[in-house]
Design a protein that fits this description.
16% strand
């Protein structure tokens, strides 16, 4: 392993000079700095993370808090994580993933142990109990999600209210007058998870304004649950012609159950999903969808975090406009 002494010998300087070039603790002449930087590049030297943290009071680590609960779709969550990792590496930052559901305690542990320079927090609730702790922490914080009262915290997310509205408007424009929302699991609504409540708000408000009959059901992540959900919706409203699915985990089971009931998509019932494009395109009937912009949200969260680390203290709330792509699963209702 290349050491700081190797770099110093190659550059013809003292090891302390190499340390000062890396940490910026002292002013070094441009000529000496160039010699050291050239030696670092040639030898492929990487400062030890612990030593670098001691020298600069920075860890070059960003912590991402995402409790992996049973009602989360881990595959979609990992798309956000992958985007954040990629963006962090572009800034020479590492990503620390905290997945245990500990509430405010986990945040306090990260801050007191100084293992990360900043926090990014996912799975945000409308009345999130972590917000008071996040405000009090002496660390930059960015939320992936928007609580009802951000209280000066920076946030980034898809505009889920607009997404719910766009789904209903798309079906209404096609002529549908009775639609239903298959939402996330009951636990997600019980927690008051921000994205779920905001999507439902947009769905309901647009249905009322467009004169569309609408209902909604939460749905657990199982074939049995989605089968019972669809059966209940059709029994309550035999004239139902459009389904909005804000629960990507149930899509395969939903489409299977509709086929077993003899319902063709979209001839008998239209389906629009909120999911990544890759997921919408993998079914025999490709799904009209509002994309979950995991890549963009994850990257923007890191960019906002780096801005906070750079001294930008003005809170930012970025809501990304929904992007609806029409594919094969929606059409005019049967007559």
């Amino acid at each position: 392993m290349v050491t700081i002494n190797d770099v110093a010998n190659a550059a013809g300087v003292a090891p302390s000079t190499v340390s000062y070039v890396i940490s910026g603790k002292r002013s070094i002449s441009p000529k000496t700095r160039r010699l050291v930087e050239e030696s670092i590049r040639k030898l492929g030297y990487h400062p030890h993370a612990g030593a670098r943290a001691l020298a600069s009071s920075k860890t070059n680590v960003l912590a991402l808090v995402v409790p992996l609960r049973t009602d989360l779709n881990v595959a979609v969550v990992m798309e956000f994580v992958a985007a954040a990792v990629t963006a962090a590496r572009a800034h020479d930052q590492d990503l620390l993933l905290l997945t245990k559901d500990e509430g405010p305690a986990a945040l306090q542990r990260v801050a007191s142990s100084a293992i990360a320079d900043a926090l990014m927090v996912m799975d945000v609730e409308a009345a999130d109990p972590r917000v008071p702790m996040l405000i009090a922490l002496d660390l930059p914080v960015v939320l992936i999600g928007v609580p009802d009262h951000p209280a000066g915290l920076s946030c980034v997310d898809l505009d889920f209210t607009a997404a719910g509205s766009a789904c209903v408007a798309h079906l209404a424009d096609l002529g549908h007058r009775s639609v239903a929302l298959i939402g996330p699991s009951p636990a997600v609504y019980r927690r008051g998870t921000s994205y779920a409540t905001r999507f439902l708000q947009g769905f309901d408000e647009t249905a009322r304004s467009r004169g569309v009959r609408a209902t909604n059901r939460p749905c657990a992540h199982s074939y049995e649950a989605v089968s019972a959900c669809v059966d209940d919706l059709l029994a309550a409203d035999p004239g139902l012609t459009g389904l909005v699915v804000h629960n990507e985990a149930v899509l395969p089971g939903l489409l299977t159950h509709l086929r077993q009931r003899g319902l063709r998509v979209p001839q008998d019932i239209s389906v629009i999903a909120v999911c990544p494009d890759s997921m919408a395109e993998q079914h025999p009937v490709t799904l009209t969808s509002v994309a979950i912009p995991a890549d963009e949200v994850g990257a923007q969260a890191v960019e906002m975090t780096m801005r906070r680390l750079g001294g930008h203290t003005t809170p930012e709330i970025r809501l990304l406009d929904p992007r609806l792509t029409r594919r094969e699963s929606t059409g005019a209702p049967r007559t």
